[in-house]
Amino acid sequence: MSRYRPRDIREGETTSHPLDGDLTKPLSKTKKKERAEKRKSIREKYLELTSDQYWRLNHLYKIVDRNSNTIPFVMNEVQEDLYANMWYWNIILKARQLGFSQFISILGLDYALFNDNMSVEIIAHTLNDAIKIFDKKVKFVYDNLPDEVKEACSTVKANVRQLKFNNNSVISVGTSARSDVISFLHISEYSNICAMRPDRAREIITGSLPAVHTGSLVFIESTARGAIGDFYNKCKESEDRLLQNATLNKRQFKFHFYPWHKSSGNRLDPQTVTVYPWQVDYFKDLELKHKIGLDEEQKAWYGNECLLYKDDMKRENPSYSEESFFESTEGAYYITQFRKIREENRIGKVPHIPGYSVDTWWDIGVGDSTAIWFTQTVGRELHWINYYENSGEGLEHYINILKDYEKKFNYIYGRHGAPHDINVREFGNNAVSRLESAARLGIRFEVCRNLPIDEGIEAVRQTLGVSWFDEEKCEMGIRLLESYRKEWDIKHGRWKDKPRHDECSHPADSARLCALMWKQPMYRGKTIIKHKPAPVAGAWT
Fold first, then answer.
1. CA distance 530 to 533
2. Distance (Å, rounded) from C-alpha 24 to C-alpha 16?
3. Does residue 339 sit within a domain?
4. Highest mean pLDDT among 144-158, 332-346, 504-518
5. 267 and 254, same structural domain?
6. Are 193 and 444 in contact (CB under 8 A)?
């Protein structure tokens, strides 16, 4: 642990020092002694003050505000709350413009300046973002420190991505970090990394987090980008531990959620904003269901911001944690259909109806996940009554799941649909195809023709118009299917005209197979067999 080490001013040295004023004029021995004692007293007092990190965070640092003015940094209410309640590893789900990226960057700089041998790493979505954070939120802050601090902890190396100090501490930025030891890790807007660069997210998890030794600090902060990816998973895991009041170890994340209404700055004059009836209903719902009471100025701010953010409002400025993961229309294939499904309350309790056959639709993965949708055809409606997904298991495992469901839920199976590549013969299995293996295990698959993905996506859109989903048994499948979206072109900054391959692909592929085969006759060799579902007494509503 280092302390502030002021540089002694040698006798006869002529310089200007912030604590001592102009020393260019010769002084008598008495005056020199008085000045030295005064200097010592001031420095001792200064050292006493700067030994308190909370004091330093609210007095030493300067930032640029939204009006491009250089101002002293003072923690706002949400930053104060995080500082008072932080754990060793922290995950922060937040609304926009609350200042967490700035605060955590300053906290990391403070740890590097006032502690020896610290390795502080800041990770951002892109290299440009990382350099901007470094320039505006690290280097600018350091350059505007009091001269006493910069003298005590001067830089021995400085470039656009790193500052190394004479106490052997270093603060760096990048898009990933691999090191023998990381003392302080800050991952900014991690949800963007997970959404746009899942490969980089894996690199961070496998390379950066293991390098953080037990007892060091980790901060992952982000707004949400849908209910998929590692950020979503870590938020849900840590929030579940919080709700269960579980005791955390030093390498488990503590969940912090900061909605827009926790910031005192998010207010507007109600006389300047029109609050629409649907927003009034929303505020009533917040109060009744979530115990969130808003005053008129907060309601005015929210109403005004809705006009700016539109579909992204709930994601960028959530009122409660679950709302953070609502998807926007950006790049999503089925968002319009799911919006209508929710408006018409077609996600809820959709029970299995005895006497109606249960069809299964498979996406069979090799070295990847296998996903199965379970549906019933009831009149002109398609009821999605169950969903199962797993990975690392053989075909026999999934067929045993079907048998378990048959006993547990009294399913009577009808059709089993599989993708065209089920005909591929497997090495090491006497050149037997998975189709033949399944038949030997008691499941006779119908094979879907190899059709263009675009045709299948359009078929899903049409099928969703007559679909009902069981909210409990299909929760995972719904969430992933709703999040299925186009791949992002990093080079050109636009959506590609093809799906992104991620955890959403498996339920989406099996749903696409369902949509293509549901109303079609089944093919077995050259014989076409008309599908005969169980008798229909009437549609369930």
1. 10
2. 8
3. no
4. 504-518
5. no
6. no
d(CA 203, CA 216): 20
In a shared domain, residues 484 and 518: yes
Whether residue 272 sits in one domain with residue 186: no
Is the residue at 540 inside a domain?
A: no
Core vs surface per residue 216-230: b (16+ CB within 10 A) or e: bbbbbbbbbbbbbbb
513: which 2 tokens? 């197979």
Q: Is 474 helix (H, G, I), strand (E, B) or coil?
A: coil
Q: What is the pLDDT of residues 482-530, one digit of tens each?
A: 888 887 664 555 667 778 788 888 999 999 999 999 876 443 333 333 4
- Supply the range of the domain harboring residue 302: 262-328
Q: Are residues 270 and 253 in the same domain?
A: no
| Three-class SS state of 507 | helix
- Tell me the pLDDT band of 8, cut-offs 50, 70 and 90: very low
Check: CB of residue 286 under 8 Å from CB of residue 292.
yes
pLDDT mean over 373-385:
94
Q: CB-hemisphere CA count at 13 Å for 130?
A: 22
Both tokens of 224, joined, read 């949400």
Res. 540 pLDDT band, cuts 50 70 90: very low
- Can you tell me the distance from the alpha carbon of 101 to that of 122, in angstroms, rounded to the nearest whole number? 10
> Is 317 part of a structural domain of the chain?
yes
CB atoms within 10 A of CB 44: 10
Ordered alpha helix ranges (H), 311-452:
313-316, 335-343, 395-409, 434-440
Q: Could you report how far apart the first and last alpha carbons of the chain are, in Å?
A: 68
CA nearest neighbour of 42 among 63, 20, 59? 20
How many domains, in total, are found in the chain? 3
CA angle 319, 310, 272 (to 5 degrees): 80
Domain assignment present for residue 337? The answer is no
Q: Please list the residues that pair with 373 across neighbouring strands.
A: 361, 387
**98-121 pLDDT, tens per residue?**
999 999 999 999 999 989 899 999
* Beta-sheet pairing, 381-391 with 467-470: parallel
Do residues 175 and 276 share a domain? no
What is the token pair recorded at 81? 């709350």
Query: From CA 197, how far away is CA 127, in angstroms rounded?
Result: 13
CA atoms within 13 A on the CB side of 405: 22
Q: Which ranges of 153-228 does DSSP label H, i.e. alpha helix?
A: 190-196, 198-203
Q: Span 372-396, mean pLDDT?
A: 92
Domain of 68, CATH number, reads: 3.40.50.300
Taking residues 454-458, what's their average pLDDT? 89
